[in-house]
Design a protein that fits this description.
β1 and β2 form a beta hairpin. By secondary structure, the protein is an alpha+beta fold. The protein is rod-shaped. The protein has one domain.
Length: 66
C-alpha cells in the first residue's frame, strides 16, 4: 500500500509541475491604465487532477495500518 502511495505521489508531483508550468506559459500580460493585467487561457483541469493525485499519494503513504 505504501508503494502505491509513493507512486501516486511521484506521478502527482510531476504532473503538477508540468501542468503548472504549462498554465503559467498560457497566460498573457498587458498594461491597462498603468497596471499590469494577466489573462489566463490555460486549462486548469489537468493541474487540479494532478494536485488531487498528489494529495491522495500523500495520504496513502502516511496512512498507518492498525
Amino acid at each position: 500500500m505504501k508503494t502505491a502511495g509513493i507512486i501516486l505521489l511521484v506521478i502527482g508531483l510531476i504532473g503538477t509541475i508540468v501542468f503548472g508550468y504549462q498554465a503559467v506559459q498560457d497566460s498573457e500580460n498587458f498594461s491597462l491604465f498603468g497596471m499590469d493585467v494577466a489573462v489566463s487561457k490555460a486549462d486548469w483541469t489537468p493541474l487540479i487532477i494532478s494536485g488531487a493525485i498528489l494529495v491522495l499519494g500523500l495520504i496513502i503513504t502516511f496512512l498507518k495500518k492498525k
